[in-house]
Amino acid sequence: MSTAAGTSNALSDPFLHPALFYRDDQEYLDGTVPFVREGLAAGEPVAVAVPEDRLRLIRDGLGADARNVRLLDMREAGRNPGRIIPGVLRAFADTVPAGRRARIIGEPIWAGRSTAEYPACVQHEALINAAFRGRAATVLCPYDAVRLPARVLEDAHITHPAVVPAGSRSARPSAAYAPDAAVARYNEPLPLVADTMTYPFVADTLPEARHAATDEGRRLGLTGLTLEDLTLAVAELTTNSVVHGGGSGVLRIWGEGGHVLCEVRDRGRMTDPLAGRRPATRDQRGGRGLLMVNLLADLVRVHTGDEGTTIRCWFSR
Amino acid sequence: MRAAGEIGLATHTIWERVLEQAVREGEAVYYLELSEVTFVDVAGAGALAAAAERLGDGRRLVVRRPPTALSRVLEMFWPDLSTIEVSMS
After folding, report:
1. Dihedral, CA atoms, A44, A47, A48, A52, nearest 10 degrees?
2. Chain A: residue nearest B5 by CA?
């Protein structure tokens, strides 16, 4: 049973990131439960972050061993793909004592992820490789080979250095592995939406932009903590535009189905693909704005290029 | 010390100066009355946390009636910071 070992993309890199394809519950259990047990037997801290129904399968499969594993419902903890690295994967792996390997099962993509979420999901999977480079950790990502479209399974070959084919017990290298290309491909434009509240801002009007966002969020049905989340996110995004994005930007707010969306456009270009995805260190002074936006929003999408940057956030109403 | 208004990009400098003074004064307990502060952004919360971390043994900052956003941001990024006490009275 060598699922756990996976295949490293570089001989020197201790980080392993295999995708596991499964067609039914039995293949799911065969691919995950021994992986967890191997970790526990080796004294490795183990976390499982998968959708609730899958979590139940693994929990039952582990029996008494489940008590020694950190179990998380990925639908909640990882609803926004942008917060999975800082809020789930690194949040766990960074607590592992030096010299020990962190072992994690993370299932960020399930049938039912929306078309708005999907590009952020692929970018997240691709960026795991950069976020864990050089670390002693294994992140195993299960993919439902029956219910997910073929394109999703193809993308998994691009974002994972190794794959465990359905029905197989061992990982093989993925010839298609090209995580930077995946990040670039899903850096999709976010076309302007008609009929939004539109508020151009500069440094002097940051407070007014934030107030306008709060008022509009309330009018669109946000209340309590969610309204506050919108306010905090807008404050950080607009401030970022002033400080890093050319000194000004345009804020837009609108409602769409069950969500209120906010979007900030500016003329800056994001050059660090891991911005907002690194966990903050305790004594780090600034640089938490985008991370907080990722932690608060239900979805964050980014498009960045020579013409500028657009960041769009979804909040459930 | 009593603050009013908003702590954001335009007011970070003065906010950091106030916190610097709190650290320097050396009192065991330093009270920050924030009931008239309507908003604190993440950088403002970070400056408060950094000041609290520089307090020596046995000293603490008591933050009175801060806007809820500040408590949430502190809880999110500095959950175990023992030198800041949030007081709602």
Report:
1. 150
2. A207
Contact between A203 and B9 using a beta-carbon 8 Å cutoff:
yes
Q: How far apart are CA B3 and CA B35, in angstroms?
A: 8
Domain termination residue (choose one: A142, A163, A185): A185
CA dihedral A20, A21, A23, A24 (to 10 degrees): 10
Query: Does residue A169 sit in the same domain as residue A285?
Result: no
Instruction: Classify A109 as helix, strand or coil.
Output: coil
Of A147, A140, A144, give the one whose Cα is nearest residue A161: A140
Task: Please check whether residue A92 is in contact with residue A70, taking contact to mean a CB–CB distance below 8 angstroms.
Answer: yes
pLDDT digits (tens, 9 = 90+) for A204-217: 999 999 999 999 99
- Report residue A22: phi and psi, to 5°: -135, 150
Domain boundary residue, one of A160, A185, A210: A185
In the three-class reduction of DSSP (H, G, I as helix; E, B as strand; rest coil), residue A175 is classed as coil
Domain span holding position A80 = 18-185
Give chain B's domains with CATH numbers.
2-87 (3.30.750.24)
Give A66-114 pLDDT, tens digit per residue. 999 999 999 999 999 999 999 999 999 999 998 899 999 999 999 999 9
State the best of A292, A294, A295, A296 to mutate against chain B, taking most chain B CBs within 10 Å: A292
Question: Do residues A244 and A108 share a domain?
Answer: no
Q: Is A153 exposed, middle or buried (0-12, 13-18, 19+ CB in 10 A)?
A: middle
- pLDDT higher than 60, residue A140: yes
What is the reported pLDDT for B56?
A: 80
Q: Which of B8, B50, B72 sits opposite A235 (nearest CB)?
A: B8
